[in-house]
């Protein structure tokens, strides 16, 4: 059945797309399972039913990996270009993953209701349900990537701005308006196809985190930055934050207020820029002012990170020595003894050695790759500089490496802490996936299948935890959760 399902298109050619549609083979598969369960239960309600449950689990894993992931992976044949998954196909896979998650749980409950009491504890399809949630997480992240490609040009404009030559702060920079226009245009299209509110919220959360991280990485490519330039950047970040506040309701009636929980998430994500920019706004003379600003806003004891700020300001090496000595003296005082050793915000980042927009500095892709290694488990190690030719393979690499938490990494958080407070497992050399160009669907029983399945389950567990906080059991309690903030 599985090879046959994989050969079928996600949507029958004679049917029109709808936001509620699922891949037909998923309904067929579970209908077959229900019929098989009913027939088997008539013959045995003991060990044989346990064996049947294991068979169900095996082929559910195969359906997740070899059918649903296959639909959103790039597929090349010979010298022909890779086929990039269409937006409608991505939505279909998301809907199907959600359907399979819920139906797995129902099937498990149905088996337990039929099986003998001594075997009930053995019946378990939660690993398969979590794997389907992992696919849902990867598809949400894939939707965010479609927005990221639209705004890459505006990031280049931002990096090419002469931030060291500004004499006064004006209105928001021109690139901000263009970026918000592109974000809202693409988000209108995507959100119009997401019929479940928790996935719309997950998309927006993920997108805001992505932009905040890309902004921070771009700051480190804009050396040197003057005090006026830093103030302008801060104003631009506030303009982006304001623009994001109505993103979730972009397809609703005008003046519809956004949920309080979403506004809080936007504020938390975009405020991660503040410590860097507020420190950069302080002049190096008198030197005590800059040192104190660093200790207040960045709040760590790292010489390396302090030098990064000095480099960003464009200070010459010979002018940094006195500031560094002063920094070391102030951090040794009793009032600063509780400072963290190093800021998770600055530790993964490197200052570009070239002028803004110049060749030779680190790319956003490499910057986000570093952040991925230092922050939470996340699909943000998909290549941050979007390449349509590797769109599908990038998604699959994220699943294969187990680096998805439905969101970009949280700058400034510890490696084990997610933005919502959920604990994440250790990362797995996450930057290695950025730049991989191909992904091969594993064959049943192979080592690749085992690793992929385990990673999909881990992805799904953390996605389920996140999305559960948005609305309990996939939709219930969403309004109450948001109002609680």
Distance between the termini: 46 Å
Percentage of residues in helical conformation: 55-70%
Major sheet details: none
Give the averaged pLDDT, no decimals.
79
- Rounded to an integer, what's the Rg over CA atoms? 25 Å
Which of globular, elongated, flat, extended, rod-shaped describes the shape?
elongated
Q: How many strands?
A: 0
The percent range for strand residues is: under 5%
Helical run tally: 17
Helix and strand run? HHHHHHHHHHHHHHHHH
Secondary-structure-derived class = mainly alpha
Which residues sit in consecutive blocks of at least 5 with pLDDT less than 50?
354-393, 400-447, 471-485
Describe the structure concisely.
The chain has 17 helices and no strands. With 485 residues, the chain is mainly α.
